[in-house]
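[Automated response] Your request has been received and processed.

Submitted sequence:
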Amino acid sequence: MYLAELNNTLMKINRIGILFFTLMIAVSCRNDDDNDLIEVPPQTLAETLVTDDADITAYLETHFYNYEEFQTPPENFDFKIRIDTIAGDNQGKTPLSQQVMPKVINVDANRFLETDEVGQIAHTLYYLEARPGVGIQPTIADSAFVRYKGSLLDGTTFDGSTEIPVWFDLASIQGSGARGFAEGASLIKAGGEIVENEDGTFTVENYGVGLVIFPSGLGYFNVLQGSIPTYSPLIFEIDMYAMNDSDHDGDGILSIFEDINGNGFLFDDEDDTDADNFVNYFDADDDGDGTSTRDEISDENGDIILPYPDTDGDDIPDYLDPDNS
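Generated structure:
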């Protein structure tokens, strides 16, 4: 399972490893006629996005999911999303284009070593909540307990854990080639209490069921990842069983609150206050002053002080201000 393996790897590496994990580029193919290698010019993020958007739009207009079963569940319905084409007996079905919601996510071209492009390029992710969960939805910085299936627009399945749920660290995945998965998962509400059955399986009532579709700039882009071709838009079906708030560095501040510029992306330069190549959510001393963040926001009993202390009154809390240690 690509995502599960990727998640386990990313949990063990620091920010530098995460940022460069997706930068291996496959740029050549073999001509079977003369066995010569032919160099294929890499596509830019912007020009790839034009093609991806067109392909995704066409997909959404020509496919539907089993929404009628979700609206009126038949007996023993498994609440799994099933997608089919609008043709033949399905001609009158409502297309996905009328049921999904868009979310615009800016992608920095420099993250893919783009030399001809600079700045942020807006990518549109589409998501569907087929069944809202009764719990809360995770943030992009949290961990999520999910079942999932990943597929290409042509229906080819490339990854998944459709029976046994697995835990994912969404923050780490956001910094990898599977960013769209993490962004989409953060839009789906979790279910109720998790009950472990005698056979080792889990039961969760009223868990969230969703679907996310996104362009390759939110996926693996120009990296050949297993059976996923380069420049491939991806689809994930996600059952959101449960979530946990995360404090990755154990400094007493939830990771989502260490998104300093509040743009929802944890790997910006702005989120590395002391420029030590560790973003704040992964840095136990955010301002690099030699005093841990936890010590700077706690009283003598170890209890967190709210609002966070600002000794010199400059509107910069002590844990982000190297002048106060």
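Summary generated for your ticket: The first strand starts at residue 28 and ends at 30. The two ends are 45 Å apart (CA to CA).
If you did not submit this request, please reply to this message.
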